[in-house]
What we know:
Hypothetical Protein Pfu-838710-001, alpha+beta, 40% strand, eight-stranded antiparallel barrel
Amino acid sequence: xxxxxxxxxxLLPQTVPRWITMRTQPIITRMAQPRPIPLEIEAKLLVPHxxxxxxIARLRHIGPYRLRPRRPARLYTIYLDTDDLALARHGIAVRxxxxxxxxxxxxxxxxxxxxxxxxxxxxxxRLVRKPTFPYTLPLALQxxxxxxxxxxxxxxxxxxxxxxxxxxxxxxxxxxxxxxxAELALDRVRLRHPQARHPTIATYSEVExxxxxxxxxxxxxxxxxLLQERFALTPATGSxxxxxxxxxxxxxxxxxxxxx
Length: 260
């Protein structure tokens, strides 16, 4: 037997109490707002001789900065696009990367280059399983712009890279504490055509200095300047992706604004 309606009206409030509205409204507002896209800020330097990487790897200090070795990484990367390079022509890169058994997907937008500093928006999500092809982007990476460009078009590999990376945590004393300023990456890069029967299209060495939370852009610039002066390194233009695209597909099919 149900309760009479006059009892239910007495027991249940006709409006939501104000204290509930006050507490839940910020949560609802945050859920409705899109998450800001993180910025990657790094310096990129070309290394003329591969042996220079080994020399840099033996450093434990450079200027006021301390270098602490981390576990090296072998990064296998697959770049994806449509057959007509719809994303690349609009300055967007989709990257699948494996480090040991872990896979992740990253969406990158073209950015800016000022001297040695490269700045670009990027968003990364971890994948729970090995990707299969044709590939569908995770919902977290399906921005309105990407959905408009791709719609239901499948994404296929257009470029592969294989990177052996030696990594170092870069810190500096500030306020009596060691503050982590950046990550130093020494990369030996091999770019390949997506079809296995094709040979390697390019090999080169580069240094990346990526800004960390307790560092500043000035830290990244100073570390880069110290390495340039000591080892005759030169500023790198573009990215691994843009370098491979130019070799494989030619400048006429690429975006007006280069990838950084």
